[in-house]
Specification:
Elements (H helix, E strand, L loop, with lengths): L1 E2 L5 E2 L5 H25 L4 H9 L18 H14 L1 H10 L1 H5 L5 H7 L7 E14 L2 E11 L7 E10 L2 E2 L9 E6 L5 E3 L13 E11 L3 E2 L23 H18 L15 H33 L9 H29 L9 H12 L7 H12 L14
Parallel strand pairs: 3-5
Antiparallel strand pairs: 1-2, 3-4, 4-9, 5-6, 5-7, 7-10, 8-9
Helix pairs in contact: 1-2, 1-3, 3-4, 3-7, 4-7, 7-8, 7-9, 7-10, 8-9, 9-10, 9-11
Length: 402
Amino acid sequence: MTVTQTGRPAAVPNTAEDILAAVRALVPLLRDRSAQIEQLRRLPADVVELVRATGVFRMGFGTEFGGPALTAAEQTRVLEELSYGDSSVGWCAMVGMDSGLFATYLSPTAVREMFPTLDVSTAGMLAPAGRAERVPGGYRLSGHWSFGSGIAHADWVFAGAHTTTGGELDRDARGKPNWRVLLLPPGEVELTDTWHATGLAGSGSMDYEIDGVFVPEERTFSFREPRSRTGPLSTPDLQMRKMPGVPLGAARAALDQVRQAARRCTDPATGRPWSEEPRVQLVLAECQAELSAARHAVHRSLEHRWNRLAAGLTQADLTPDERVETMLARVRAFRGARAVVRRLGDLAATASLLDPAPLDRRLRDLETMCQHFMAQDQIIQSAGAFLLGGAPRNPLVLGILD
């Protein structure tokens, strides 16, 4: 038994099976509310509470804190299902559940103080867009960050920053700026409503600003300093692994929608049922094949990596192929999901544009998702560079901080 943010006692699911079942039960409501979520440009308060009650926000907390300790593949599966209902809800949950993953880098005392219940959401930007000046007991944080998905309902806001001492950048032994992540209550953050995107409109991914706010040392962390140096949660790419669940779930929803429509539609030119049209049969089968292949690649790579690290190996023990496997599968999931829904839109033609048009909404959501750096060429270049002994443009996706 736990207590929700509204103060009402509630039995929140605390196993992978129960969380997934609770999310599945919520999907019809999310579909009914999807147009409203898009128009509001953020998640309605009651939808946030319904998501909270499924246990999604607690998925990353380990058993030492009473959490369900879901694996990366289990987290991804839950996010697929949630995104099947609504892409913006899935995206916000994907970010919001990082609270438990960040707990790996905080002291147990800080975790219990900051998260008196496990069903709290986080939002923010890890990139060091701010400066954190060292002061007694912590830091004075200032800066401006963008793309704070879910920040309007977050219980904690995180912000990446370079640390400074006396106004000068702190640097490591190789001269690189020191990067730290700081967590603040939302009341200490000023939001700017900049989110007017055509896709993931309901994610409320607005800008936020922090001006000289004191952050205690214990509410900050560095990915260089996990509490454990081994295990699946010891590498700094941990929050990226479940991201493919959102595009995979969105594409599956679009594919199922067109499959259902194909059973009742007829071709206006021939009068034949869509279900008998070779063109329709071919497109649907090829989309099914692409989506299934992308999904299996994601889950296979996540499970393999998790099991290897859980057996006591460190990241350095993994082969180069193992190091790049999850990141390449992730890119393929984003891009493959978009390609599937684009093709479905071409198949449906003008019918995909009518209002309301969930297929059009899914395509806009996926186009926006694919503008995230996680789906960009820099990720593929980084994998290729690592395999060839070159310089990855984005080493963090490989779990490299140097």
